[in-house]
Structures are given as structure tokens and as C-alpha cells.
Amino acid sequence: MITESLTITAGAPGLRSLIGRTVGLDASSSARFSQLNDDYVDVFVTTPFEVIASRRVQGTCSRDGAVVAASDLLEALNNNTAEVGAARDPNWAGALPPKTGFQERETLPVTVVRELADQGQELARQFSGPLGPPKSLLDQTVITIDGDVEIPMRMIFACTSLGLIPGFSASMDIPRHLRVSTVGRWTRLDAPYGSVYRSTRLGLFV
Q1: d(CA 43, CA 60)
Q2: How many helices (DSSP H) and strands (DSSP E) are in the chain?
Q3: What is the pLDDT at residue 203?
Q4: 115, 131, 112: which is closest to 48 by C-alpha?
Q5: Is residue 103 exposed (0-12), middle (13-18) or buried (19+ Cβ within 10 Å)?
Q6: For a disulfide at 36, which of 40, 69, 78, 203, Cβ 3.0-4.6 Å?
Q7: Helix axes 153-161 and 110-127, enclosed angle (nearest 10)
Q8: Which DSSP symbol is given to 175?
């Protein structure tokens, strides 16, 4: 059995926050490591919103592309240990977004995203069933950029549910905007505390 590891030299508290919220939303979620260079790792997670999210830390991982249970990663982070647990590569059905090549398309004030999220959550409370917000609400396009880049409500929900947007009490040094970037079939929404990615093809990982 392959045992994966993630050695973090900076950024552990932020990653712990993201993974904690991820597991809170979906106890069966997966995490995947992407080693960018000798110094940084992007940690991606699955979400119930059919988008993936990520947080960057300084450090190294046992294997580029390794998949682990997000719950195992959270336990390792809470225990301050590098050993994460068993590899679970089959749980991640597809490729990650490209490591490079994204082109910035627009910058959005964080207040706009907050207002959209508040509106969406109010609608979700009115119309949600036992499985959460209706798919029609999640698929609703709430921002269009240059006529061809569409940001659906599911990306907004992911940002707010995972705590990627700073609260009102956050330091003023924290940016108060989000960046929209694209490459190929992928759209990326960069928030101050992490990023959300969506594939524009049918199915997240196709």
C-alpha cells in the first residue's frame, strides 16, 4: 500500500481551514497534490458543487498528482504530521487544470460576489430539497465576461462555503477582489484564500 505525505513549511493554517470546511460539506471528498516546483504545492479538493477548489502551500509532496482522502489530510494537518495516509488515486476521475497558461480576464469586487452569494442562499433556503440547492440554481449564470466567460452560481457558492472570501473583520492587507482567468476549457476564480475551478465541458473532469 502506498502511503502519501505532504511536508508543509508555510501555509498550513490556511490549508487546514480549507480542508476542514471541505470535509464539513462532504465527508467523502478527495484531495489531490500538484507539485508546482521545488518549493510550492497546490492542494486541490472536490466539492459537492461540481467544481474543484485549491489552496497553495510552501512545501513538498510525496508524489505529484497523488490523491488522498480529504478527511485523512485533515487529520494529518490537525496532528502536525507529514504522513497523510493511503493513496486513493481512483477516487479522482480525471485530470487537474493546467499548471500554467491561465489568462486573466476580469477583476471583480468581493462585495459583488458576497451580494450574489447572499441572494443565492436566500433562494436556496426557499427552494432547496433534501439534497441541497436545486441544480437549476447552481447552473444559473450570474456573471458574464467578454460575452464568452460565464461564472455560474455554483462557483460563487463554492467560494463562500469554503471560506475563500475574507470576512469584514479580516485585515485590510487582505485583497478585497477576485480575479477571473481562463485557459482552454477551464475557468478559474481566484479569491484571497484560495481558488475555484470549473470545466466548461459536460462533467467536471471530462
Answers
A1: 11
A2: 5, 12
A3: 47
A4: 131
A5: exposed
A6: 40
A7: 100
A8: -
Which residue type is seen at 103?
A: Q
Give the residue with greater pLDDT, 98 vs 118: 98
pLDDT at 206 over 50: no
Asked if 32 contacts 73 with a C-beta cutoff of 8 angstroms, the reply is no
Q: Give residue-wise pLDDT tens across range 26-53.
A: 999 999 999 998 899 999 999 988 999 9
Q: What tens digit of pLDDT does each residue of 1-28 get?
A: 789 999 999 999 999 999 999 999 999 9
Cβ-contact 81, 107 below 8 angstroms: no
DSSP letters spanning 61-121: ESSTT-EEEHHHHHHHHHTT-SEEEE--GGGS-SPPPPSS--EEEEEEEHHHHHHHHHHHH
pTM: 0.89
Share in percent of the chain as helix, strand, coil (round to 5): 30, 35, 35
Residues contacting 136, CB < 8 A, separation 6+: none
Grid coordinates belonging to 4: 502519501
